[in-house]
Amino acid sequence: MAKITPATDIDFARYYGGVQVAGRWVGRAMWRGRMIAGFGGLIETEEGEWVAFLEVPQEERKPHIYRHALAAFADAQREGARVIKAWCDVTIPGAERLMKRLGFSPTQEIMDDKVVWKWEL
Fold first, then answer.
1. 1 pLDDT higher than 80
2. In what order do the strands lie in the sheet with 35-46?
3. How far apart, in Å, are the Cα atoms of 37 and each of 12, 17, 72, 79?
4. Please, where are the H alpha helices in 1-121?
5. What Rg, from alpha-carbon coordinates, does the chain have?
6. Which of 15, 16, 64 has its CA nearest to residue 36?
7. Which of 78-95 are b and which e, b meaning 16 or more Cβ less than 10 Å from the residue's Cβ?
8. Which residues pair with 55 in a beta bridge?
9. What band does 16 get if pLDDT is binned at 50, 70 and 90?
10. 9-39: string of b/e by CB count within 10 Å (b at 16+)?
11. Residues 27/39, Cβ–Cβ less than 8 Å
12. Half-sphere exposure of 99 toward its Cβ, with a 13 Å CA cutoff?
């Protein structure tokens, strides 16, 4: 099993090819040895509103991911998140179930041909 730790700006840049986040964010990095194999987190897009993302290799999509997602959500709430939006790739087995378990609901909003899901405090 991979090791999951709170992520740093350097971890974000490593995983996303040098991209840096200018605003506030929280996240978790999934490590396999010295390599970041997956990444998830939340980025503040406007005051109180954050966007969640999660990229986990297929072989690591296991129930323990849920508790790490909850921890990242708690971090974002401490930073002021009141609304969290995300997209759900329904082609990934269990993705929709995870979204519902985290408390998200699908909205009428569509972005990049995908339904926007929303969680509110």
1. no
2. 3-6, 25-32, 35-46, 49-55, 83-87, 114-120, 105-111
3. 12, 13, 17, 26
4. 9-15, 64-78, 95-102
5. 14
6. 15
7. eeebeebbbbbeeeeeeb
8. 39
9. very high
10. eebbebbeeeeeeeeebbbbbbeeeeebbbb
11. yes
12. 24
| pLDDT band (50, 70, 90) for residue 47 | very high
Predicted confidence at residue 62, as pLDDT, reads 87
Looking at residue 73, its amino acid is F
Token reading at 71: 């921890």
Closest CA to 118 of 45, 64, 55: 45
